[in-house]
Design goal:
single chain, 331 residues, mainly alpha, 13 helices
Amino acid sequence: MACPPVQRQPPGPPPAVPHRSRPAAFSRLLPGLSLVALLLSCGTPLHTAAEPQGPQAVAAPALSGYPRLPRQAKELAELLVLLEQTLRNPATPEQRLPELAHQQQVLYRVLAQQPAMASAVGQLLPARWRPVLELQLTARREFLAMRRGRHPIQQLPAWRIQPPAPAEQLLRHYREASAATGIPWEVLAAVNLVESAMGRIDGVSVANAHGPMQFLPSTWAEPGIGAGGDIRNPRDAIHAAARYLVRRGGLKEIRRGLWGYNNSAHYGRAVLAYAALLKADPNAYRAFYHWQVHVLTEAGDVWLPVGYNQRRPIAVAEYLRQHPEHRAPQD
């Protein structure tokens, strides 16, 4: 799969956004919004960029830049609540979701590496949002643990970053595959998120894994898994992933199924943390769908937006020389 370990082989509607004045800082932190964003990369470079996947992907709106965050715990807590409420609110215009989701994603990535600040933010949150913070931090820290002891990434992968298939189309695939197999749709969505950022990552892994659910061709060819479908087609890959999780024991114990998908307890715990967020509130999918591709490198987090296209790995330093705006702000 795309993120190998070291030993690699609805509740009711969310609350509406309160109509109170926001600190002026939030207007600067949320560009383009009047009131108010891996696999998840776990850092395994891919070496071969694949050909374009097809016309089913939707055009991605251009994002305004790398999200910026306040520095104080109180402002971070207020921003977290504002983002969660707005992203989960079905009344939020669709065109605003990418910026908001990218801001949310970066917020959790930063807090996952700052335990003291994360604790301070958690203490300031309303009770409603504390479990959300904990699950987000759990998932991110499990992926960080998968890289513990490895050398920092010095080269960015040979990926093409493309727009994903439409959100409702993917959601329909997850639910259809769940109905056919019994594997929770939330788990399938979480696997799609961490393996390819919902299909944004187009490339072939160092382990020769392909497609939005990162299958080895040999696994895909097993009777009853690929079932004659296209390894790079979102629907075919999602259904195949559900069948594979069943084959690896996922109906009896989903952790066992996920271990078959990627031989790492860290991986399983991370996927299940994201799945738990979706199970607690399916509207959390609105944010996850818009999460971007970030890679933790020797220079810190580097954002690979839609349009990134490298046929060969590129040195982190060289890429940032060409695209300094894709590095986490240093001030």
